[in-house]
Amino acid sequence: MVPVMSTVTAPSRTGRRADLIAVGLAMLVVAAAIAVGLHYNRPGSGVVIYAFAPPLFGLWLPHVGPGSVAAVVLALLVVTKGPLLAARLSWRPLLALGYVTALAWTFSLAMIDGWTRGFTGRLATEHEYLHEVPGITDIPKMLGEFSSRILDFQPDSWTTHVSGHPPGATLVFVWLDRLGLQGGAWASTVVVLVGCLAVVAVPVTLSALGRQDAARTVLPFAVLTPGAIWIGVSADGLFAGVTATGIALLALATRRRILALPGGLLLGFGLFLSYGLVLLGVIVLAVVVLTREWRILLTATVGVAVVVASFALAGFWWLDGYHLVVERYYQGIATLRPYSYWVWADIAAVLIALGPAVIAGTRRAGAEFLAEPKRSFGEPVTLIVLAAVLTIAFADLSGLSKAEVERIWLPFEVWLLPAVALLPSKGRRWWLAASAATALMVNHLVLTSW
Q1: What does pLDDT average to in each consecutive run of 10 residues of the chain (450 residues)?
Q2: Which pTM was predicted?
Q3: Is residue 8 part of a domain?
Q4: Domain that holds residue 325
Q5: Which candidate, 347, 380, 111, 89, places its Cα nearest to that of 219?
């Protein structure tokens, strides 16, 4: 078990000023991405970015809906009561309350767009997984021929999201169908239920690594994260919940080593939900370094290997699928979306999904690392945040996610939430209010596509 190490959060005018400057610079990046994106969207610009509310994927459409009042009320309750409850409640009841509140917040945000447009219809379009489910009557056959149907311009090519992911993502919705849970309402419900597990998995990880103080601070921010807009509803929210739970189990394995095996199984299955989730290995490595228990990594690797071997025996080899997906990616709009814009506009989209508090906290994590790099490798909050930054940097520079990263990188974004623990206790409620306001503003101004 790692020792408890307190982070430097003493309020200072210099620190607060630097936080505000960091948030201001982030807002400038977002404003620049909006301005340049709108310029590119003008007729005759000669550039196609395929994003009509840049840098987010959606449409500019100011609107209110059935969830508007509920979302505002929940935000006010969490901002005013959340930090106090997080400090005083017993740990397990607090986690249960946090999870239920996250469900309510995520659902209320989705309902701003309405029941069909914001919830039941999100996973039922012609580009989504449910479109293919009725045609999959033989799962072993589907797995055996999956790679052969990835490339476009074939009579039996998979639809966009099915072809762009390993078969595990599609299998989730096929299994739901087999259980009798057909249709968009059930699919979206399961996505939100699993996606909100990330809200408690991140604090659980911090607590297991010896920083329950930080875990309690993070929980209200995790509940009100602007990223909840895309947890409800995109399949990437489900991916975030599955993989965050896997990482939490690795951290808990310091107390019960056997938990590393189910953690490895979940992370192994994560590899078959989205190819990009292989980058979570950076965060996994950070957690293992913090535990100082390398046997945990060995046990988890066994779990990952079991999943990889199972899919291979069923006829799907991950590397073959990955290479074909890269080819499919450049058969579509990726060839038109300019890397020169999206390599920094993607970061703007992430900044929106994170909110001001995480931005300020991340600045503090970077400052602490630069001041005391050796100490940072033993401090859970700082090391996990820096690992998440590195993961997003790798994903961004690869150019394999040009646009739509506010949802695609959700499994990485949730690991930046610990950064808020570095903010001074005085003023945290204002940062929490800013996070909620960001989510409410974005969800009411933009009709997101996922």
Answers
A1: 41 83 98 98 93 96 98 98 98 98 98 97 93 96 96 93 96 97 97 98 98 98 98 97 98 95 98 98 97 94 98 97 95 90 98 98 96 92 98 97 96 98 95 98 94
A2: 0.95
A3: no
A4: 23-38+46-448
A5: 89
